[in-house]
Amino acid sequence: SDLLWLGAVPVVLLWLGAVLAARFPLLGAASPQPSSQCQRKCGSVDIPYPFGIVHSPDDDDGHCAMNGFGLTCNDTGIDDGGRHRPFYDDVEVVGVSLQQGQARMLNDIFYYCYNTTTREMDSSGSSFRWLDFAGTPFRFSDITNKFTVIGCETLAYINGHDGRNGDDGDYGGKYMSGCVAMCRGDDVRSTLSNGSCSGIGCCQTAIPGGLQYYHVEFDSAFNTTEIHNVSSCSYAVLMDSSNFTFSTTYVTSPAFTNNYGGQAPFVMDWSIGNETCDVARKKPGSYACVSDNSDCFNSLNGPGYICNCSKGFDGNPYLRDPEHGCKDIDECKLPQLYHCTNGGVCRNRLGGYDCPCKFRWKGDAKAGTCIDHFPLAAKVVVGTIVGILIMVIITFLVILHKEKKKMAEFFKKNGGPTLEKATSIKIFKTEDLKSFLKKNKLIGSGSFGKVYKGLLENKLVAIKKPINGSVRENEQFANEVIIQSQVIHKNIVRLIGCCPEVEAPLLVYEFISQGSLHDILHSNNNKVLSTWMHV
């Protein structure tokens, strides 16, 4: 074949012709808001405004669709289970994306096959087929779609020239490209490779932006007459390349058309009007981005613009209705989409969310990089200190408990219960007298103990601390203390109280400031103790 030298390289021919004035009107211009009664689903496909279900593509009754975006919801018949599917004219629509400004549709796979009965080549209806979106808001996506050709002796052309009037819609000129797919050698199967679409059994080529019309044509000089027992058919279609993976069975069997049900998906970019965002905003009566918290973006494939909800909002930017327009996203309820992990605290706000690290942590919780602000070494030190403090506190409590238990035992042993019943003697607690039992308070000592000076209830007292073992125990001691406290004589120091909570009970006396009893009894003055001398 004369074109065999082309190999895996797509044949691209660009014919520059006269540029004709654009003939389509301002399709996609904003219209009044749709009625709430408009149908928003056809079969399993959601139909968001500016799209809408109408009786015909040009019908805007009820303002269900913006001009140029009307779809029909057709019953596809009993053979299809009586299901309803949306169509744009005669092209089936399988999905609409407001955010991307795209519609996903189905395109017939064109074939060119050897007929063993007639021994001639047959094609889809005729030697070429077309799709025409000229005069609509739609353009074939040059990013997503690729012209795909499958076969072993195949050359197919994609032509953007409309032979009826020489106008290619938005694309300002005539366009033609081609793809050749060949198989080397006598053994066709040995040359094919799954997943590879680089000219051996499969070929793909890109299309230019702005294209609204195309037709496909097979070159009759390339046919499967000689190899029909191995590969009888060639195929060509403009399709979504992201949805395609080549299989060698596509060349040797009808698997390609069978897998796609005879129709391959392709993507159409759409836009509102033919003005930029800056120009459209100055015309509030026709500006389509009417929802609060919506933004305008210029089309990347031809003139016009699309609308999106602002960052942090979700809904339909083409609707004023606050219920269905752009609404704030509560990111905290969607942790799988909006991350706030590793110690973060999620807080929703209008148009976004905050995710600070929790207390004493630092970093970025959205990125999952929160780390403890308290280093491990500090934790170890603090933990050790806290542990020691806990041990000290526990030890103190144990000692305190033992002391209280011991005081209770001394109290009982020293006749405390009996002393409590006496009205003439006062019972003191250890803590009441402890502060006086110091060296600087000592006023005397002897074989029976030591005497300390103190101030109790604004009265000076003498506190006697007997030597251990010098005091009788139990009831006898208690009775003697009670009797002594009842003795009131001008020459005898009065016993005020007792502390039985220690091993050797403490005795509290009146304090005499004029010497010892011996000094008073044997003094030359021989004075009687006056009451002011007894504190």
From TrEMBL:
It is a single-pass membrane protein. ATP binds at residue 465. GO terms for molecular function: ATP binding; calcium ion binding; polysaccharide binding; protein kinase activity. Residues 1-21 form the signal peptide. Residues 437-535 form the Protein kinase domain. InterPro entries: EGF, EGF-like_Ca-bd_dom, EGF-type_Asp/Asn_hydroxyl_site, EGF_Ca-bd_CS, Kinase-like_dom_sf, NOTCH1_EGF-like, Prot_kinase_dom, Protein_kinase_ATP_BS. Residues 328-371 form the EGF-like domain. GO terms for cellular component: membrane. It is found in: Membrane. It comes from Aegilops tauschii subsp. strangulata. This is Protein kinase domain-containing protein. Keywords: ATP-binding, Disulfide bond, EGF-like domain, Membrane, Nucleotide-binding, Signal, Transmembrane, Transmembrane helix. The chain crosses the membrane at residues 380-400. The keyword Metal-binding does not apply. It holds the Pfam family EGF_CA.
